[in-house]
Amino acid sequence: MTHSKDALLASLALSMSEAFSGPARSGKMFGGPATLWDGDEPSIAQELKKIEDGIWKKTEKRLEEIKAGSRVKDYDTELAGLEKEHAEIKASLLDVQTKLGRLGASGGEGGEIKSAGQLLVESKGFEGAKRGQRFIATAEVKALSTGAASAGVMARQPQRLAQYEVPDEPHIRDLFAQGTTQASSLVFPVRKTLTNAAAMVAELAAKPESDMTFEDRTFPVRKIAHYVKVSDELLDDAPGIQSYIDAQLIEGLRDVEDVQLLKGNGTGQNLTGVYTSAPAYTRAVAGDTLIDTFRRAMTQLRLAKYTPSGLVLNPEDWEKVQLVKGTDGHYIWVNVGTTTEPRLWGLPVRDTMALAAGEWLMGNFRRGAQIFDRMDARVEMTNTDQDDFIKNRVTILAEERLALVIYDVNAFVKNAAS
């Protein structure tokens, strides 16, 4: 046997490590069938086959000698050892395959990225609708925060700011830490005051006492939803309805979500947004440009002991920043000949219509606040609503439920009041 059992199991561990930390450096884990040895080395499957062949050959030889009635040496111990080794390696391989498949790393169905529209048109209910039956079809889009056992994690990873990539349509959700909840509201202690009395202390002297006060705040779960009615002729065009759901219904939820996460006023069915709660910018200096202002806002956050992780502003203000030119007429912050990621002073930038011109928000989004999903974005379609069945119509509904917890408003700063 070319490799020992320990070497094989070490390879399994390495493969798992690569799978859980991202695409393997070899490029084999996510771009095609997983190979557990590089180069010309045998794979785990090949090694298992060698062991199985060895067991079979020894079993055949023992049976032949028993039939011949000859006195033979005892193969039982050797066979038992082979069988045990085979079982251990096979169990380890199965465990790895299960975990990789759950993560979508094995190239199978678990790793396929499916949108809400695609999930719906592939459902059994949708197939029944195309045959003219009464139906209800449901598809749930796993949220950014789903657990490691869900394929939704592969499909919708939260943006990691250190490795920023521009989504098709940037949304504010990507900047926040993500979580899930089963409660209708969440209660968290929010810091009110902090007195830092830390000091140098002599031997045997009394230590100073710092003071930190908290108050419990309740953050309710709120629902965002909308529906449309379309003719059932659209059901004959699965790609068309899939695109419509993804581009209109799901994006419609996200657009309202952006407004709520930033400017929700906390009354009625509204969330309390971070822009609504954030302290105002206080470091203005006469003659500052907008770019100067953003740099001074970073310092305001640092003085509050937070490191900013993102900037959100209106598209018109982002345009002003990008069109700034040097004295020789060249653009300072952008190369117009190439596609560049939206950053300013190193910070990821989101331009959004959720803020008006002149409004902006900077903060440590991942430490200062967190989104908790009670129900992931879900799409339902039926022809049983009202008189849909007799009018050859279908109703398509999209909804989600979430809460926004703001741990510390001082992790944010917004434009000064005009």
Automatic annotation (TrEMBL):
Coiled coil ranges (UniProt) are: none
Report the residue ranges that make up the Phage capsid-like C-terminal domain in this protein.
171-414
Gene3D superfamilies of this UniProt entry?
hypothetical protein PF0899 domain, Major capsid protein gp5
- Location relative to the cell: Virion
Q: What is this protein called?
A: Phage capsid-like C-terminal domain-containing protein
Organism lineage reads as:
Bacteria, Thermotogati, Deinococcota, Deinococci, Deinococcales
